[in-house]
């Protein structure tokens, strides 16, 4: 039944965020952090990964899935962050679709935060601190509801 509803939703919606297959199963369950870079050696993606490296627990608590979209050489090799967050593999075709959908050229760096509703919430052409990302996420109405429902530690 859920599969049928998901398929129907995909057919009826014109929302561009659902086109790449990699994003469709994440809607309503996860926030997505797309990291676009021309290569795994790009200093901007390396800097971004360093900024996130010791904050995977915070990202998991906020249901963030990190998806690198790297033109050359696949996902960044120096990314313990990626291993811990277990990003889904992105095919060449999906990379192309994501770049087209979000208007990111192959040589550009971009960080895009997608909310659980599938909408783009934040975009940056420079690396962003975890504090800034948490601030943006924690201000979202859905996250506010999650925090209210979550039992205190």
Label this structure with key terms.
single chain; 153 residues; alpha+beta; Glutaredoxin; four-stranded mixed β-sheet; 4 strands; globular; disordered N terminus
How would you describe this structure to a colleague?
The protein has about 150 residues and is of the alpha+beta class. The longest helix has 11 residues, at about 1-10. It has helices at about 1-10, 45-50, 55-60, 80-85, 90-100, 130-140, 140-150, and strands at about 30-40, 65-70, 110-115, 120-125. It is globular, with a radius of gyration of 15 Å. The chain has a single domain, classed as Glutaredoxin (3-Layer(aba) Sandwich), CATH 3.40.30.
Top CATH class: Alpha Beta
Strand tally is 4
At the fourth CATH level, what is the homologous superfamily? Glutaredoxin
Biggest sheet details: 4 strands, mixed
CATH topology name: Glutaredoxin
Report the uncertain regions: 1-19, 75-79
């Amino acid at each position: 039944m859920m599969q049928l509803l998901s398929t129907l939703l995909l057919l009826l919606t014109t929302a561009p965020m659902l086109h790449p297959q990699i994003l469709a199963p994440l809607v309503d369950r996860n926030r997505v952090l797309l990291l676009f870079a021309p290569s795994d050696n790009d200093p901007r993606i390396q800097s971004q990964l360093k900024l996130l490296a010791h904050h995977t627990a915070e990202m998991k608590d906020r249901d963030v899935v990190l998806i690198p979209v790297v033109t050359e050489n696949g996902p960044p090799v120096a990314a313990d962050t990626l291993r811990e967050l277990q990003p889904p593999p992105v095919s060449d075709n999906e990379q192309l679709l994501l770049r087209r959908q979000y208007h990111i050229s192959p040589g550009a760096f971009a960080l895009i935060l997608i909310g659980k509703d599938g909408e783009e919430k934040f975009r940056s052409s420079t690396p962003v601190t975890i504090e800034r990302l948490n601030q943006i996420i924690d201000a979202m109405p859905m996250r506010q509801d999650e925090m209210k429902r979550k039992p205190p530690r």
